[in-house]
Design brief:
Structural class of chain B: alpha+beta
Number of domains of chain A: 4
Structural class of chain A: alpha+beta
Shape of chain A: elongated
Oligomer: heterodimer
Radius of gyration of chain B: 29 Å
Strand order of the largest sheet of chain A: 7-10-6-2-16-15
Strand content of chain B: 25-35%
Number of helices of chain A: 24
Chain lengths: 654, 311
């Protein structure tokens, strides 16, 4: 096409370079320091060439430029990672193309790559603002695309643009809502990123780090009223292996050895305790998800793990939405092996604690309920302190904690309690997860942050695992340095009171908006789509109404076109030479185009005496209409032309 | 082979269904639309993004995929409406001299048509019209032709206007003649017309400054002989008068020849006709087997030149 042979404007090239630069910024997570620096150098050179208005490089020169860079990238492929290598190559190809831009057709592949690269940016960013930014960049690329095929002078006009957007938007959203979705077809590589949240082992101090983090962990909305606050123990991990200092996940949780274990349903499932809820988990780069009590059923993107836990079918590299239905009752023991596993002790470590456990066992026997109550009394009545900055513990950490430092965090209390319970002959384990959260009363959902991370104990009694939270037993006056750190950022600012109220309101509204975004845009999945389809199908029930509405719309449209057509006809008829052209269209053309029609009709009449009367009639009507302004002559004239078309055509020229 | 056959069939179909007309309006039946190469790549992009979004279960990638898909669908409509109801009309026949480029004056009419590419079907020479909004006078450049009179071949209009994802094109046929007159060539050694011995004998000096002739449309009414009108009202008679005294009446003669000699003679005749018209003379044309009576004016010159072109 000729249009593609036009020169590219400098402004276009500048915008394209700006776009590529923002792609570099978007891909920062995938880029290493040296590759970022390399691209910055390339951009600098590109800008310099643009400013100097240098001639574009030839394909040969481009190859010489890009080949070594590509080799470098492939050489470093192992350290970069497969997926990040793809981002590097995408950006490199775009930048390389920018060096050789001259004509419009050179830029077509560039546009394609930029569309693709920008869309890949959503792998890294799904927050609302970033998503809006990326869509803005996509719109910029769209404008560049438009300019590539539009006249040089053309400016985007608002009205046609709005019309186009109004047409495209329903198609776009309709496709998003209704186009069939598929489950993942194959495993995609993920970008390498550190996981957040609880780790696979719990040593004293692992939770403190989390607790100082205000980041969002997950959000929950309940179908129905929320359960009582003391039941908000979100289980994520179970630590069953104790080495005297650390609690670790047992190897039965290892993915390779793991079989899909069916969770035992309790004999008597009390439907009143059953709770349905939807969780929206932030990306954690782990697979563990959060649930309450005993999960009975869950959405398809989850699978069960031992100890009544759930996990995602794939790494949570982006926000994950899932539904669970749980029973809020003690978990049943699944197998005897589980009991044995949770009685294991770590050899001869912590002798003083073992001694304490023996005393307790003599006093209360191996009764979990009584033992846990005794432990709670111990923590409450003795000088145990709760602090975010516990002193360092050496070997025999539990001994040191229980008898020397006596100040610690939830992980200290949980591991000490579990160890004591095991030593007293009660199967016990440490559970890691989140406790509590901020209930948003107006929007009816729960926000759980990383700072809500918690550890507690589960002990076995009468075939059921019961929950015991030793940290809750500490007297409130012995909470050290807790308050400031234990509060979330908004709460702290609320306390200090220097922030204006409207700003807080704004922040709160923003977080609600973000929640809606997460639920309706990010969380829209096959389930919700099938619900939507069902609702649409239910609409079909009202088909007479639908038919009536569509008929009404259709007839309105038809009436509108008819009116417009009439108006157009009328305007044509009012044109000065409309009737002259009408009459001439059925006559042989006059020799001189300037000849008056009446004169020409007269001349035709002399040449065709047989048709003289007809021609006379025609002339009379015509003159009536044009010169006397008699609009009523229009109809007979039209009829005459229509009726006598053949005879008039056959007239002999004078 | 098959392609050629199909092309022949298609041309026959075009000739049958869309005969040449002085004015063509592009309607639904005349516009063809197919995805361009970029359009196919674009569809591939949509597919890749859909797979990517599906595999990552990433709604935002799916959203961008659907955005591009809706753009693709919408562009199809926009590309069609860009050409729809475009009207082409021939203003006049194209005239030129051999070995000089000709242009056919056309009138293009459209509410809004952008980046229209125009040319003759099967020709490399193409022209770009950036914007038509309303009425536009346009000169369609024609390739170099040798002497003669040609029918205007079928045109090819095409546009990729919004986004270049679809090729939209049409093959309208306009009825117009391309007149290619012989190139004007001054006869060597005969610069001065008046001394041309060939034509000297054919000059008919006028006796007196007036004569009578039948009325023709365009004659001034004050020259009508009103006295004679009473006897024959159907055929008025006018007085004809030459303005200057130096009235030239010249005959341009083309000898009965063929081949290169004929061409040369035609070129000379063309030159002389233009000279005579420029000098304000009355002149006629003598062709083998045909005579054009004395006359003057651009129309007369055109008629004479057309005869030369057909010779």
């Amino acid at each position: 096409m000729l249009a593609q042979e036009l020169q590219l404007s400098r402004r276009w090239q500048q915008l394209a370079v700006a776009l590529q630069f923002s792609i570099l910024l978007l891909f920062q997570d995938a880029f290493t320091a040296w590759s970022s620096a390399l691209f910055l150098l390339l951009f600098g050179w590109l800008l310099l060439r643009l400013i100097q208005q240098a001639e574009p490089l030839s394909p040969r020169q481009i190859n010489w430029l890009l080949a070594p860079l590509l080799l470098l990238l492939f050489w470093q492929a192992r350290s970069i990672g497969a997926m990040n290598l793809m981002f590097h190559i995408l950006l490199l190809s775009a930048v390389g193309r920018s060096f050789s831009l001259k004509l419009r057709r050179d830029a077509i592949q560039l546009l394609w790559v930029q569309y693709f690269a920008l869309s890949c940016g959503f792998i890294f960013y799904q927050q609302m603002l970033m998503a809006l930014l990326i869509f803005g960049l996509l719109a910029l690329n769209l404008t560049l695309h438009f300019q590539l095929f539009a006249p040089n002078s053309s400016q985007l006009k608002l009205k046609p643009l709005l019309k186009t957007v109004a047409l495209a938007l329903p198609i776009w959203l309709g496709l998003f809502l209704l186009f069939p979705r598929l489950p993942p077809l194959w495993q995609m590589p993920n970008q390498q990123q550190a996981s957040t949240g609880l780790g696979s082992e719990l040593d004293p101090g692992s939770i403190e780090r989390l607790v100082q983090n205000d980041a969002l962990a997950f959000r929950v909305s309940f179908n129905g009223p929320p359960p009582a606050r003391e039941l908000w123990y979100w289980r994520a991990k179970v630590y069953e292996h104790f080495d005297g200092r650390r609690w670790q996940e047992h190897s039965r949780f290892d993915r390779r050895q793991q079989q899909l274990t069916a969770l035992a349903t309790p004999a008597s499932s009390n439907s009143q305790n059953r709770l349905d809820y939807q969780v929206l988990a932030e990306s954690s780069f782990q697979r563990d998800v959060f649930s309450l009590g005993l999960p009975l059923s869950w959405s398809e993107n989850l699978q069960p793990r031992p100890a009544a836990l759930l996990q995602s079918t794939q790494l949570i590299s982006q926000r994950l939405s899932y539904q669970v239905s749980s029973l809020l009752s003690p978990l049943p023991l699944v197998a005897n092996a589980e009991r044995q596993l949770n009685l294991q002790q770590a050899g001869n470590s912590n002798p003083r604690s073992q001694q304490l456990a023996m005393q307790l066992q003599q006093q209360y026997g191996s009764d979990g309920h009584q033992l846990s109550a005794a432990l709670a009394t111990l923590f409450r009545e003795q000088a145990f302190y709760y602090t975010l900055e516990p002193p360092m513990l050496g070997a025999d950490a539990i001994d040191q904690f229980l008898f020397q430092t006596r100040s610690g965090f939830c992980s200290h209390y949980a591991s000490a309690s579990a160890m004591l319970l095991r030593a007293a002959g009660v199967p016990a384990r440490v559970v890691g997860g989140y406790q509590g959260g901020d209930w948003q009363a107006s929007q009816q959902y729960l926000i759980v942050r990383q700072r809500d991370a918690h550890a507690w104990v589960e002990y076995l009694q009468d075939g059921y695992w019961h929950l015991f939270d030793p940290t809750a037993a500490i007297a409130p006056e012995r909470i050290l340095q807790g308050l400031a750190q234990a509060l979330s950022e908004p709460e702290r600012t609320l306390l200090s009171g220097w922030q204006p109220g409207w700003l807080q309101q704004l922040a709160l509204q923003w977080s609600h908006l973000d929640y809606l975004w997460a639920v309706w845009v990010l969380g829209f999945d096959q389930n919700q789509q099938s619900v939507l389809w069902q609702q649409l199908a239910a609409l079909l029930h009202y088909w007479p109404l639908l038919v009536a509405i569509s008929l009404g719309v259709l007839s309105l449209l038809m009436a509108y076109t008819l009116v417009r057509y009439r108006q157009q006809r009328l305007r044509q008829q009012q044109a000065p030479d409309h009737w002259r052209r009408q009459v001439l269209s059925v006559l042989p053309p006059p020799g001189q185009s300037a000849e008056p029609l009446s004169h020409w009709l007269n001349r035709l009449a002399t040449a065709n005496p047989g048709q003289a009367e007809l021609l006379q009639q025609l002339r009379q009507h015509y003159e009536q209409l044009i010169f006397a302004g008699n609009q009523q002559a229009a109809y007979p004239l039209q009829q005459l032309i229509k009726r006598e078309r053949k005879q008039l055509r056959a007239l002999k020229r004078p | 082979m098959l392609k050629r056959l199909l092309q022949q069939k298609f041309q026959a179909y075009l000739a049958r269904s869309q005969p040449a007309q002085p004015s063509v309006c592009l309607t639904q039946k005349r516009i063809y639309i197919l995805p361009s190469r970029l359009g196919l790549w674009f569809a591939l992009l949509v597919l890749i993004l859909y797979l990517l979004g599906t595999n990552y279960q990433n709604n935002l990638i799916l959203l961008s995929s659907f955005m591009l898909l809706s753009l693709l669908l919408l562009t199809m409509l926009l590309a069609f409406y860009n050409l729809y109801r475009l009207k082409l009309s021939v203003v006049a026949d194209a005239e030129t001299f051999a070995n000089q480029p000709a242009a056919l004056p056309l009138q293009l009419n459209s509410a809004n048509c952008q980046m229209l590419q125009l040319g003759l079907q099967g020709q490399r020479l193409q022209q770009l019209v950036p914007v038509i909004s309303g009425q536009l006078a346009f000169a369609l450049q024609l390739p170099l032709l040798s002497r003669g009179c040609y029918e205007l071949p079928r045109l090819k209009l095409s546009s990729q206007f919004p986004f270049g994802l679809f090729n939209c094109w049409s093959y309208p046929a306009l009825s117009a003649q391309l007149w290619v007159y012989p190139a004007a060539l001054a006869p060597t050694g005969q610069q001065n017309l008046d001394e041309d011995p060939d034509n000297q004998g054919q000059t008919q000096p006028l006796e007196g400054s007036e004569w009578l002739k039948p009325y023709q449309a365009g004659d001034q009414p004050r020259r009508i002989l009103w006295k004679k009108l009473a006897t024959n009202p159907q055929q008025p008679i006018v007085r004809q008068q030459q303005d200057g005294n130096t009235v030239n009446e010249q005959w341009v003669k083309v000898p009965n020849a063929s081949g290169a000699a004929l061409e040369l003679a035609l070129q000379h005749a063309c030159y002389r006709l233009q000279q005579l018209e420029g000098a304000g003379s009355r002149y006629g044309l003598l062709l083998p087997g045909k005579t054009l009576a004395l006359g003057q004016g651009t129309q007369h010159l055109q008629r004479c030149l057309q005869e030369l072109a057909l010779c």
